[in-house]
Here is the input.
Amino acid sequence: MTQLKNTKPINLLLSLIYLAVVMALATELSVAFSVLLGFLCVWNLAITLTNKKKPHTILANILAGLCLLFLLYDVGLGDTVTLFVAMLILSSLFKLLQARNKKHYQTIVLLSFFSLSTVYLFSQSLLSTLLVSVLYILNFAALMLIESTHKIKLAVKQSTKMLALALPIAVFLVIFLPKLPAFWQLPGPKLAKTGLSESVNPFDIAKLSRSDELVFRAKFSNTNKPNAPYYWRAIIHDQFDGSTWLVSDFSKQQQRSQIADAPNAPLLSYSIIAEPSSQPWLYGLEQAYSNSENIKATQQGLLIRKRYLNNTINYAVTSANFSADALNISSRNQNLQVDNSALNNVQTRDLAYELYKTTNSDKVFFNKLSTYFLKQGFSYTLTPDPMTSSSAIDEFMFNKKRGFCGHYASAAAMMFRTVGIPARVVSGYLGGELNEQDNYLSIYQYDAHAWVEVYIENEGWQIFDATAVVSPERLTGSLSQIDSLSGEFTNNLNFSLLRFNQIPGFNWLRLNLENLDYTWTNWVLGFDQQKQSSLLKKLFGANQLWKIALFSLLVLISIFLSYFIYLNWPKNTKQNQHVMSHYFLEITTWCDKHGLKAKANITPLHYLSLAANEFPKKAAYFAEFASLYSKIRYKEDYFTSQDKKHGRDLVKLIKTNS
Amino acid sequence: MHDTINDIIDDLSSVIYGKNEQIKLALTCLFSQGHLLIEDLPGMGKTTLSHALASVLGLSYQRVQFTSDLLPSDILGTSIFNATEHSFAFHKGPIFSQVVLADEINRAGPKTQSALLEAMEEKQVSMDGDIYPLPSPFFVIATQNPLHQSGTYPLPESQLDRFMMRVSLGFPSKDAEKKLILGHNNRDYKLLPTRINATELVNIQNEIKKTTLSDPVIDYIIELVTYTRTSGIFSNPLSPRASIALGKAGQAWAYIEGRDFVTPDDIQMIFKYVTAHRLGIDVNNSELYIEQLLNAVTVPL
Here is the structure.
């Protein structure tokens, strides 16, 4: 077995690569397991840096077995993707811990090409792309170190060069190679840590934990941008069990069986780039419709994913106003259902009756209820007190009077239903952060919202948002921009750039990073069949597929042809000569001219020493050239551009100032 | 390590005057795990050199004087019947030591010569179906009288090929001879200090294998070897074994010179000693022939 000379730098590089991979995947694995993997990386690093011996094979194998058991216990067999990723990384790390000879290291480098690509399974952002690219460079450098005796710096430089050379080919393939549908998919999407849920129960939540994770982006065409507020609908909850709002079986069945037709008079059209999510719900304004092949539009105007895909999807949406058509009996009944919640919340029920009694008109009750929320001293908070009694709505309406969207929506919808007006709770997102430059909205998890839709006879569904009445500034922008809540808001966020919103420099940086990410998502991740064909059409004119085929074919043929010609070009010995030999020949011609008589076929170094004797003024230059020559030609040190310059300078010095 | 090698060279030259190059060549041969053939007239210091080498390097040493009636078993050892145990026991011969001086090898008959050369090549002795490995490192210094002397059996070419180098100590300079006559500062080779031990020697041998043998140098070796095969001047052109020996000896020479890379100058330096005996050139004529050869072959740049 071949022993390697420079195991130290190889070990160092590989340990660092795995450390980076483990850190990048830390959010996907459990804390304990991430720590275990991290420990293995650090162990490798420590062994390398302190020149200690690697652990004995038996010990390492026993540890590997134990870790595998822990892995099976910790990750379980349910999430196969994470399981296999964790297994791959674990086994590579143990292999590294035992690696002794060249073949071992080759295996590990091969494995790490897979290991570091797994980062992409979980995140395809610009940042992870940069990380993975850097890791690729390091891994190629490690491969180079196995086959050579280079220093790390040189190996990294070489591998960067190599990958940079491969980049144009990659770009060419991405742009021109036909995009085929995926041959296989990952089993099961990743679980969302935050996001909407099919059931809404605001009363047992003490603290709304919100994240600044991006949910989707919406891009309007420049001409028809609607006015705020934007109510991005995602889920309709039309079943109330006294405390929790759910999606009723009735609407679930409706969503399954009925598919909406394209609206006659769409008011708006826009496109949405949705981030990966474990839930089928997608986002749209009012009565949304999309004819995208992966999306189902329901009659309620919701958009639903047909397939779970673990990547971002890009779809075009059109929105129309809600129709004013009368509700059918069954959906009317569903939207009036209150069960025993009215009995439990007697005070609220009586209040609803009282407000309705004086008007007897749905429209007037709608306005009266708004005024009630405005006048009765309600306030908006992200940290409400939990209300767990069976009469939670009563407690909220008459005692606490503090809550977030869920509380208001829940209470309002119940009151509408009590007096016989069909109403439903809708959850989705409100607003979004507008990017002025490119005219798109970014909607984050903290923009999640719940509101009520009320059916008014002859007018159709209307949005009733008590939160908007209590805290009107919530309507126009993103939650992040409301000053009065900023303290509460930032306390709720984990550490992120958003925390430093108030500092202008940071905000500028954040917005620009965000813009960069948008461009990346839109143009690289979102470069699908449609975008490809439109780009190709732009490049080659419409409907001229043969031109594209011809172009690609020509490029490929010319690449292969030039390579073939390059390989078979008659070898010119002069050209093949090493630069240093070339310099040496220049020196010999100069020496010949100036009368140095030397025997034929003496060695270069011998010749240089003769020349040094002949021209004592320049002896130092000859000596220096001789040492440079033997360093490059005989010691086979790497020929740097500095060496080249040095050689050229020496030749110049020898040839001039005589 | 290089200081140690300089010390060794200094020690050896305090015993053998004015033969610095020959001393370095002997070390080159030893360091590149080859065997050395010294061809010289009697009384030129062959024995002194080999004995001094063994003691400086801390190796066990045996001298075998070859005569026309020497038998293979006199070198290798014999099985002797042990009457009390009713069995044969192998008694190792003088070849079982790290440095063996085979004095006047061409005085012995062919059978004995080939017994020695076989052991040199195999690094083991097979006797009565048993295999006895020779010690490591194992180094044979054979001396040879010039062939025109009476009572010699010349070694065949195939066996000469087994020796990595052939050197000739030659007559000392007048100054050196004066010192010898006066017995001036004459240190006994038996009193030389041991500079390194066998393990360190093996380490040096391994270090030498890592000396860079660059492409231009390898090309040069190939050019040289090819010239002997194609020019038609030489009746015994060089074999690949000679090319390998040139590379190894070049590495060892560069190492002794304190470099970690070989230059064409190193190859030119050792070329005569590695190839002359293989080409069938007499010691006295070698200078001329080799010079011609080196002048005829272009050094790759």
About this structure: The first strand of chain A starts at residue 214 and ends at 220.
